[in-house]
Amino acid sequence: MRKIKKTTRKYILASIASISCFVTLAGTSTAGELTGQEESKRPILIQGPMPIEAEDFASRLKDVKVEESGSTFEFYTGTVDDYPVIVSKTGKGMENTAAATAVAILKYNPAAIINQGTSGGHDPDLNVFDIVLGERTVNIGSMKTGDRAEGEGIVATDWKPMDVMASEGSAGEDPNAEKARYYDADPDLLAAARCRVPCD
Asked: How far apart are CA 79 and CA 87, in angstroms?
């Protein structure tokens, strides 16, 4: 287990180096014209919900500083190979992660976000410390039940996806909203993450 853990850490650290190379080559204007940040490197953000996922990576940063936002979120700022990296301890659950991500985007304007701890129960072939590179994401909590008579309860296998972004009106009454909305990953960042060795 320790060997797997060590190998995974090396893979992620190598991926950070590869992504930082891509970010440096791509420039720093993708999040808007921020004069103060255009002359510096925008950080890479790594998120983990639990201490075991966040604090271990934070211990590998150099010149670490801890910043808090409210009573829930902690941000560890430092560097990996002289590139700025921020490790965020988000707390568990999609709501906490979404809120911590929004705070981090506003606070640090990261060039890329690496989220960990999202695939634990989806595939029996996955092991602790395995890395899944997501090509797209979907909100699996956005579902609706079919019409059933009073007292019949619900049948989870009959649930339908509900795209709440399909229109400004009620998605529950919109037949065009009965589909899943997917968000594709950035192809350049995916390619950089697959590159296991740092760029020149």
From this structure: 10
CB 44 within 8 A of CB 24: no
CA dihedral 93, 107, 57, 117 (to 10 degrees): 20
CATH code of domain 2-29+37-133+185-194: 3.40.50.1580
Rounded average pLDDT over 78-96? 90
* Confidence bin at 7 (pLDDT 50/70/90): very low
- Measured over the CA atoms of residue 116, residue 106, residue 90 and residue 181, the dihedral's sign is negative
Task: Give yes or no for a contact between 83 and 73, defined as CB atoms under 8 angstroms apart.
Answer: no
Residue ranges matching CATH 3.40.50.1580 in the chain: 2-29+37-133+185-194
Residue 38, pLDDT score: 41
Q: Tell me, what amino acid is at 200?
A: D
pLDDT range class, residue 29, cuts 50, 70, 90: very low
